[in-house]
Amino acid sequence: MDHFLYRDGELFAEDVAVAEIAATVGTPFYCYSAATLTRHYRLFDEALAGMDHLVCYAMKAASNLAIVKLLGDMGAGMDVVSGGEYARAKAAGVPGERIVFSGVGKTRAEMRMALEGGIRQFNVESEPEMRALSEVACAMGARAPVTVRVNPDVDARTHAKIATGKSENKFGIPISRARAVFAEAAALEGLEVVGIDVHIGSQLTDLEPFRQAYAKVAELTETLRADGHDIRRLDLGGGLGIPYTTSNEVPPLPGDYGAVIRETVGHLGCEIEIEPGRLVAGNAGILVAGVIYVKSGEGRDFLILDAAMNDLIRPAMYDAHHDIVPVREPAPGAEGARYDVVGPVCETGDTFARARDMAAVAPGDLVAFRGAGAYGAVMASEYNSRPLVPEILVQGDQFAVIRARPTLDEMLNRDSIPCWL
Ligand SMILES: *Cc1c(COP(=O)(O)O)cnc(C)c1O
User: CATH class for domain 4-31+282-413?
Assistant: First the structure.
């Protein structure tokens, strides 16, 4: 459920007309609904009620400071994957004890930064990383709390680019080697092993892979405890998928997901962490674009928008589908159209949809890409020297620019020409 609905023939974000925002900030822009973000966070929090738990929002889905602060102020933890995200979490007021640090390539500088600023745990992914972290911690006179990420070799049944839990993926250590790796971690002076971490992929629309992975983690917990490790925390990752179109079946809800967690690991008495990103932010955001031209091609019409692949790369990168709806609601019975929906970037990959049946629109009209809140703005670039797309947050009847569109001067001034040219 989200808060982008038609009201009197106009698309609204909560109580603000999307067209009003467009008139103020221009297009394209991302627009988030605070009510949807907080609702989604709460669903996960409630799904784990009664268990000792922390929902750590995976910031890479949408990491604007305003979004991080909104969720952080509700008590959310943060899952960060870089020093930059760590700095954002801290700048948004999230205390270190609610921040977990994931990722296969943490540098020593990033480790130091997190140990200095405070960290709940590092989710370490390899032996070389463990050794480096131990050295960094020792040099600081600290001990780094860690979980070890295991790769359970489970097929997440999602797009290959976002599957992370098969043995051929770069993530985690093979679960078959877990006992040896935990033994080494426990022997490293700078580390304090607190638990196990797993994350099998993103946009999972079926609970079965989660059930398989978590069952393996439960079994491993008992084995490692028998080996003498004090396994007291399980980080179960993120990955629950969202409906990207109203015409498909609905993925499982956070409550169903919580039930799987309870069934598979609930008996272990561990503190549970989850790291949802997409489900929190995905349907809490839209990308609003203006129609520049409708161009007739051979056997097809191109709908040319002022948004492009640099603003929303998911269709080009993951063959992702986003519903595209007009901001002015079509009159009942109005005739639709079929378009190839494209942006102005000079690449054929700059195609949002092919042969899409949708409302007929005209130059100057506004359209909204639904489900664009996660892995949207964070993946945007300035390819083709297009200014980075701005972000807007709506709460009730108010809205604010939470990242402004850079001016062309600001863009140019980031470059410098050496004096010897
Ligand atoms: C990307 C990622 C997540 C979030 O995944 P979603 O599909 O957005 O829920 C959580 N944990 C880790 C380690 C990740 O890399």
Answer: mainly beta
Exposed (0-12), middle (13-18) or buried (19+): which is 346, by Cβ within 10 Å? Answer: exposed
Q: What is the pLDDT of residues 66-100, one digit of tens each?
A: 999 999 999 999 999 999 999 999 999 999 999 99
Which helix (H) or strand (E) segment holds residue 70: the answer is helix 65-73
Please tell me the distance from the alpha carbon of residue 48 to that of residue 198, in angstroms, as a whole number: 17
Number of residues written out for the chain: 421
Confidence of residue 163 (pLDDT cuts 50, 70, 90): confident
How close is the Cα of 154 to the center of ligand 1, in Å?
A: 16
Look up 346 and say whether it is catalytic: yes
**What CATH code is assigned to 103-274?**
3.20.20.10
pTM exceeds cut of 0.85: yes
Q: For 298-317, how does the pLDDT look when each residue is reduced to its tens digit (9 = 90+)?
A: 899 999 999 999 999 999 99
From the candidates 31, 56, 270, 346, give the one annotated as an active-site residue.
346
**In the chain, where does the domain assigned CATH 2.40.37.10 lie?**
4-31+282-413
**Which residue among 199, 240, 279 is best mutated to probe the pocket of ligand 1, counting the most ligand atoms within 8 A of its Cβ?**
199
Q: Which two tokens stand for residue 287?
A: 């990308």
- The response to whether 278 counts as a known ligand-binding position is yes
Ligand 1 binding site (Cβ under 6 Å of any ligand atom): 58, 60-61, 79, 102, 199, 202, 237-239, 275-279, 374
- Expressed in angstroms and rounded, the spacing between residue 58 Cα and the centre of ligand 1 is 6
Counting ligand 1 atoms within 8 A of each CB, the residue from 202, 242, 278 with the most, and so the one to mutate, is: 202
Contact 100, 146 (CB under 8 A): no
- Residue span(s) of the chain under CATH 3.20.20.10 come to 103-274
